[in-house]
Amino acid sequence: MSKIVVVGANHAGTACIKTMLSTYGDANEIVVFDQNSNISFLGCGMALWIGEQIAGPEGLFYSDKEQLESMGAKVYMESPVQHIDYDAKTVTALVDGKEHVESYDKLIFATGSQPILPPIKGAEFKPGSYEFESTLENLQFVKLYQNSADVIERLENKDIKRVAVVGAGYIGVELAEAFQRKGKEVVLIDVVDTCLAGYYDKDLTDMMAKNMEDNGIQLAFGQTVKEVAGNGKVEKIITDKAEYDVDMVILAVGFRPNTAFAGDNIERFRNGAFLVNKHQETSIPGVYAIGDCATIYDNATRETGYIALASNAVRTGIVAAHNACGTDLEGIGVQGSNGISIYGLHMVSTGLTLEKATRNGFNAAVTEYTDNQKPEFIEHGNFPVTIKIVYDKDSRRILGAQMVAREDISMGIHMFSLAIQEGVTIEKLALTDIFFLPHFNKPYNYITMAALGAKD
Q1: pTM of the full predicted structure?
Q2: How many domains does the structure of the chain reveal?
Q3: What digits encode the pLDDT tens for the residues 400-413?
Q4: What does the CA dihedral 281, 282, 284, 289 come to, rounded to 10 degrees?
Q5: Which of 11, 195, 322, 325 is catalytic?
Q6: Known catalytic residue: 11?
Q7: N or C: where does the chain have the smaller number of CB atoms within 10 Å of the terminal CB?
Q8: Cross-strand partners of 92
């Protein structure tokens, strides 16, 4: 029997623990440490909760300490790991305020990520806080269930009328919508000149930007935040171009891997993530890393990269579970598939944008097509769809895809994810067997037409 210690029990950790216990039963002793007070919070749903698009947070959890322990694990919550001795194979954690030392045969890091604190005057974490609390009242970071609950409680204060969201990535855009739905005046600030940069090319991000403006969100793109000012609480936010009187500031500028606690023994990626192989094993044999704290193989670039998504966390957790328990299993890589829905505008993407592909050294091109989902004689439930396919002109390999519509077209992106994974060429996609029935699509559908439009 091996003793396997798992540090962290959110999406990657929970998937890993459940896989080990459900597949291998009591063949191993599983011990878990997590510094949080709860497990498995779906952070992607916090904007829905804040914006009152769901009834409450209960459905945003899918596991807890009791469930994992009923399966056979020993789980220590609110127990931050302080030190790892890789030679002695021990983990030291604070359990109930006292030092606790646990030995291990195999070690799995599932410590996730933490909010980036940019160099902004007035923005600081409270010393010793594990919940990303700010020293300035109403300056909020959003990562944990507790952060969301705190924001919702503060919004009950009728004096909070104006909210600034810093960072126009997925979380920032979703939160901007949520606050506007709560009746707040919202300004969305980002250093780049668009939103969702990195996920979509600018013509599509401009569609989302207009969508937000049409719904009353003020956009302050191309501005660098210099200071959050206030006498004990937020009163204004100052950029290099303007000042905004606000009552609350949300910092959502991204996340960094939570790896500093682990010392310098393990090889790191350029952003500090644990560098792992396709078995999720680090540079120390028998020590694994999964989820947002680790690298992952990117099938679009065909290189090791960093793509922090809950879906990737779950898959890496499964891979590490089998390897730690003695079954050889390689991950097959990911494409970074993702999606967003704001005021009914649905956008999905996978792989590389044209800008990213070019930056990664590909001789990249894009083919784009807009058409109705169904033939024009279908008068109801018909809607336009825009699709972009990025491909390499030299190898003809599909590198990425983006789709946008006012209805749900999300299932289509899975085909492109598989195409990138399997190295499908743009010519092969053009001849792919896609069925036709007017209830669903056109005989010359937008996917086929976009592929046929690819140039040499």
Answers
A1: 0.95
A2: 3
A3: 999 999 999 999 99
A4: -80
A5: 11
A6: yes
A7: C
A8: 83, 101
